[in-house]
Each structure stands twice: as structure tokens, then as C-alpha cells.
Design goal:
Beta Polymerase, domain 3; binds zinc ion; globular; Beta Polymerase, domain 2; DNA polymerase, domain 1; binds calcium ion; binds 2'-deoxyguanosine-5'-triphosphate
């Protein structure tokens, strides 16, 4: 296991021990161990494990070192017998109780010992019978709160599509900025990093201390707020009816850049940044960038005015010898190394793709299959976006539920598109394509003679059936389609629907290899609930020569705008304009299609 996975396991051990009522010194030793591991360079950690010198460090007792060493050698926490036994002693229901708001290990232990409660269901029953209120340290109010928390558990635990979260967050940022007391306001957290799903919203505001209460009042009184879950002088947390929660932090102006950076995360990025600061004798936190040496906490030092100044995040990065790292790249996946080289003028910053780079899009449906706008309406919408071209790709005949096109209807559509272009194209050039089903054995939905006769500009190949095939069968099926000389690009590589449906089982490493070898594009399906293929795979694949197309999979004119979603996650995958086909001009696209054929 890696250093960070081991740190997570130590935290989990601490929680499990607390559930068992182990003494606080012991549980804290695991938590402190986890923090120390987080702050340690991976190289130093490996070297110390090798040499058996971890125990020389403060806070690493013999028992802890023994467990860390065993976890390091294991593939999963269960490889550590101590962990496996501890976990086996604790009922799953007890773990589930940890997810109930306002319920921590200590309260859970009390409920278990005094009422025999070992699951959310049992807790609900105990609350309804009034037995929880009767316990010392609980009372009527706590019982009511627990009942409500249980009822909302599903909604609370749920993550939200970025697109939905953004729709809530946008007006809040605008609203905050419109307050006269607010100097600066930004959304932070996973939303700012552009993650495909968002757990909760995080807002950072700069204001004078005397104005904080007025801002907090406004935040908590927003019409959509269902419940104020926490409230202090400079912070508040609220829950909206949708179940989405939001945190607000108000900081002095001089702390704003540090707080914005800290609460943007990710946690892994922050850990790497903190290590870098420590190596320079500095301590980085939401409070500032202060000398590590000397009396007092980082917060106290910042309040004594000891922090380096940073008006902007760019200045914060500069203090640590780094160029500005775009929020989308802050995932602790090697961004620090790259932007160090940029700062030292040893390398260029990646010029990540931007929404304005797109000049068209290829995977779009019309009323001929399951779209809601006609070809002419789709073309007009593309022209209104300022695009140079639009690719049409309606479903093929095997997708009968989507009214897929048989050979004759497709031939007629191609003819319509040619006539449309010949008549001037109303501002955009249309490309004739199809979203062709990959049949269960990997053959395509039209035969070669049909393809020859149709004269399509391009073909998107997609899986829409038999999605439960075994992994090797699905992998072979998709690769066979990729190897078809007519295939131009692969649609939605896993078929996942975020927060609803797992993707089909497929070995994407092999699919990527095949796509590169056959010069087939893999799409980045930009629909907010797909974002498929996943951004985590793009950086490496693109370096190896995989071409991307950011495809809206639009089923109506308004759906074309979803390409912005695709651009966002493409940035998370380090993609530049060169990696994406639909940043090319008309001639460049025509050339690609011609060479592919
Ligand atoms: P989410 O809300 O689950 O989609 O993900 P985030 O990244 O928005 O996480 P959240 O809301 O818990 O916290 C916002 C940021 O604050 C997070 O990305 C990094 C920072 N942060 C919060 N808690 C910790 C922590 O315990 N350690 C470190 N290093 N950073 C933290
Ligand atoms: Ca968050
Ligand atoms: Ca948060
Ligand atoms: Zn499809």
C-alpha cells in the first residue's frame, strides 16, 4: 500500500478503536501517525521502510512502526491481521451509524452499550420509542435531530453532479459579491477544481471582522436554505432542500488567498504543498505562510503578522517557487513537479484547452432518431455558438428504441446534409456521420457495402446493448469495432451514468492501446452525467498519442452547450488544444477524416 493509503488506514483504525472505547491516547497515536505520514515525502518514507529507520522519528513507537511496515507490504488494509480482526469485531451497522449527522464514535458507543443499538434501523426504532432521549447526555432535542438525520441520510450522503452544484453555487457567489461588506468572494472545493461530482459547496469571503455577522446572516437566510447545520462568527454551514450542503468561511482580506487555496484543495495537493513549504522552513495553512520555527501555532503566527504576503494565489505559489497551478490540476497527481519546472523556466506551462478553442462538435442527434430538434435547428444553434461545423450522428438501426436509422433513412439523411451544405449551410458546414451500434460480437450495425455506398464523413461507434458482458468479452468486442476501417471515434467508452449506473466492465488500457494503434479517436462525452472517458485516464493516454474529441452527445439544441463541461474535465486530464480534434479548423477536420478513410 502507498503512504497515503496507509495514512487513511491509520485514521480508520483510530475511529474503529474509538467505537470500541479504546483510550484516547491510543487512538490519538494512530491519528498523529497518519498526519506525520501525510507530511512525509514519499521517497523518504520508502527509504525509511527499506532501512527500518521509521522508528527513529518522533511519534513512531514500535507497535505503530510494525503496523505501518506490514501495511506497506500488504495490498489492502485487511492484509494487516490487527486491522482485519478489529474490523471483523465491529458490525457493519455500527460503521453505517458514523454517517448519521451529529453522531460520533463516543455517542455510538454509548448507544450500543446502553440500548444495544448496532445499526441505523435500530437507532431509528430506539428514537421512535423515546429511549434515546432518556439517555444521559442525549435528551429530546438530540433525539429529534438524530431522527431527522436518519431520514435524510440518503440525501446527505449523496454527491451531486458538478453541473447541478454549479447551478446552485453561481447565484450564491453573485449574491455574496453584491453584499456591500464583501470584498472578495469565490467558490472553492471540488466545484472549483471541476470534479465530476461535488460533495458540498465551499465559499470563501474576504471581509472585515466587524462585518462577518451581517454576511453570515445573509448566507443563512437565503430562501432555499432548509436548515442551518452550523453557525459561528466567521463560518456557517447550511443545507438546501436538494440535500446539497454549503460551507461559508469569512476571513480577513490578507488571509484570503491562503484560505482560498486551502479550501480549494484537493487534500492531496495541499499535503504536497505543505511538504514543500516545510522543506523551506515554512508552514502553509489556511491562515498564511509562516516560519515553521518559533513559539505558537500557525494561526497565532499569522495573527502576529508573521505570514508572507499574498494578494493572489499566484503570489502564494511564487513564494514556494511554483508557477500558478490551475485549480483543475490540483489533484496531487504530479502538478507540483511540472509547475516547479515552469517557474524555473525549464519547461513550458501546459496551455490547457479553453472553451473558446472549440470550433464545432461531432456527436449530435436530431429528430430523425431520439433528438428533439431538427437538423436545421441543430445547425442554426451551432451557428449561433459561432461554430464552423457540426457533425450529425444519429443512432443506427439496432438502437430501435431510439428510432435508429436503417440504410435507406441514413442514405436520405446524408443526401439532405449534402444539399444543406450545397445551399450555403446557413453559416456552418455539416458533417454526415452516424452513431453506429457495436453489436454484441464487435461487428458494426451496417455492412461494408452499405458504408461504401453511404459515403459518410465519419462514424462514431458505441455500445448500447448487452452491457453486462464479462470484461474480456466486452474488451474484445470494443477493440474489434475500433479495428474496423470505418470507425472514426469511440463513443462513451464505459457507458457510465454518474451517480446512477456503473460503466460496463472493460479493460480501458487495452482499448486505449487499440485506439492509438488504429488512429481511432476516443470521445470525451461531455454530457454532465457521463463525462466518459474519465479525466483520470486522459493525461497519460494523450501523451502516448491518443486523440480526443469533446462530444456533447446533444439530443437537443441546448445540449450543444454541454461541451463546456467536457472542456472542464479535459483540463483536468491535462489536455491541450492539440489533443482535441474539434479545436481544428474545417480544413484540419476534413484532412483528419480523409486520412482516416
Ligand atoms: P467534496 O466536497 O467531497 O466534493 O470535496 P472537497 O475537495 O470540496 O472537500 P471538502 O469540502 O471536504 O474540503 C474542501 C477543501 O478543504 C479540500 O479539498 C481540502 C481542504 N481540506 C478540508 N479538510 C482537510 C483536511 O483534513 N486536510 C487537508 N489537507 N485539507 C483539507
Ligand atoms: Ca466541498
Ligand atoms: Ca466542505
Ligand atoms: Zn450513445
Amino acid at each position: 500500500m502507498t503512504k497515503n493509503e496507509i495514512a487513511d488506514t491509520l485514521d480508520e483504525i483510530a475511529t474503529l478503536l474509538e467505537l470500541e472505547g479504546e483510550n484516547p491516547f491510543k487512538t490519538r497515536a494512530y491519528q498523529n501517525g497518519a498526519r506525520s505520514l501525510e507530511a512525509m515525502e514519499a521517497a523518504e518514507f520508502s527509504a525509511r521502510i527499506e532501512a527500518g529507520t521509521l522508528g527513529e522519528l518522533k511519534g513512531f513507537g514500535e507497535a505503530l512502526v510494525d503496523k505501518i511496515t506490514k501495511l506497506h507490504a500488504a495490498h489492502a488494509p485487511a492484509g494487516l491481521e490487527f486491522y482485519a480482526k478489529l474490523r471483523a469485531r465491529i458490525p457493519d451497522g455500527l460503521i453505517a451509524l458514523l454517517e448519521v449527522p451529529s453522531l460520533g464514535p463516543k455517542k455510538i458507543k454509548a448507544l450500543r452499550e446502553q440500548l444495544g443499538v448496532e445499526s441505523p434501523e435500530q437507532l431509528e426504532a430506539a428514537c421512535k420509542e423515546g429511549r434515546v432521549a432518556a439517555l444521559a447526555g442525549f435528551g429530546d432535542k438530540t433525539q429529534a435531530k438524530l431522527l431527522e438525520g436518519l431520514a435524510n441520510r440518503a440525501a446527505y450522503g449523496k454527491r451531486h453532479l458538478w453541473w447541478d452544484a454549479r447551478a446552485v453555487a453561481g447565484p450564491i457567489v453573485d449574491g455574496l459579491r453584491a453584499r456591500p461588506q464583501v470584498r472578495r468572494a469565490e467558490a472553492a472545493g471540488s466545484l472549483r477544481r471541476g470534479l465530476e461530482t461535488v460533495g458540498d459547496l465551499d465559499f470563501i469571503v474576504a471581509a472585515d471582522a466587524g462585518d462577518a455577522a451581517a454576511i453570515t446572516d445573509w448566507f443563512c437566510a437565503q430562501p432555499d436554505v432548509k436548515e442551518v447545520t452550523a453557525r459561528g462568527e466567521t463560518k456557517a454551514s447550511v443545507r438546501f432542500a436538494s440535500g446539497l450542503q454549503a460551507d461559508l468561511r469569512i476571513v480577513p482580506a490578507e488571509q484570503f488567498a491562503f484560505a482560498l487555496h486551502h479550501f480549494t484543495g484537493s487534500k492531496d495537493h495541499n499535503v504536497a504543498m505543505r511538504q514543500r513549504a516545510l522543506a523551506r522552513g515554512l508552514s502553509l495553512s489556511e491562515w498564511g505562510l509562516v516560519p515553521d520555527a518559533g513559539e505558537g501555532t500557525a494561526k497565532e503566527k499569522a495573527e502576529r503578522g508573521l505570514s508572507l504576503k499574498a494578494e493572489t494565489e499566484a503570489e502564494l505559489f511564487e513564494h514556494l517557487g511554483l508557477a500558478f497551478v490551475p485549480p483543475e490540476l490540483r489533484e496531487g497527481l504530479g502538478e507540483i513537479e511540472v509547475f516547479e519546472r515552469v517557474a524555473e523556466a525549464k519547461g513550458a506551462a501546459p496551455r490547457l484547452i479553453e472553451p473558446g478553442d472549440l470550433r464545432g462538435a461531432f456527436h449530435n442527434h436530431t429528430t430523425e432518431s431520439d433528438g428533439r430538434n431538427t437538423l436545421a435547428e441543430m445547425a442554426a444553434a451551432a451557428a449561433a455558438l459561432g461554430w464552423d461545423y457540426l457533425g450529425i450522428a444519429d443512432h443506427s438501426k439496432a438502437s430501435f428504441q431510439a428510432r435508429g436509422l436503417d440504410e435507406a433513412r441514413l442514405a436520405a439523411q446524408v443526401k439532405t446534409i449534402r444539399e444543406f451544405n450545397a445551399a450555403g449551410g446557413a453559416g456552418v458546414r455539416l458533417f454526415a456521420g452516424v452513431e453506429c451500434d457495436i453489436l454484441t460480437d464487435g461487428r458494426l450495425d451496417y455492412d461494408d457495402a452499405t458504408f461504401d455506398a453511404l459515403g459518410l464523413d465519419y462514424v462514431v461507434v458505441s455500445v448500447h446493448s448487452a452491457m453486462t458482458q464479462a470484461e474480456d468479452e466486452m474488451t474484445r468486442r470494443i477493440i474489434r469495432a475500433i479495428e474496423h476501417p470505418r470507425a472514426t471515434m469511440l463513443g462513451h467508452a464505459t457507458g457510465r451514468i454518474l451517480l446512477r449506473r456503473e460503466g460496463y466492465k472493460v479493460d480501458l488500457a487495452k482499448v486505449i492501446d487499440a485506439a492509438i494503434a488504429n488512429r481511432v479517436i476516443i470521445e470525451l462525452n461531455a454530457h454532465p452525467s457521463r463525462l466518459d472517458m474519465d479525466w483520470r485516464l486522459w493525461r497519460r493516454a494523450a501523451e502516448r498519442g491518443l486523440m480526443c474529441s469533446i462530444n456533447p452527445d446533444a439530443h437537443e439544441a441546448a445540449g450543444l452547450a454541454h461541451v463546456a463541461e467536457g472542456v472542464r474535465v479535459a483540463r483536468k486530464g491535462w489536455l491541450t488544444r492539440e489533443h482535441v480534434l474539434n479545436t481544428r479548423d474545417l480544413a484540419g477536420v476534413e484532412r483528419w477524416f480523409r486520412e482516416r478513410r
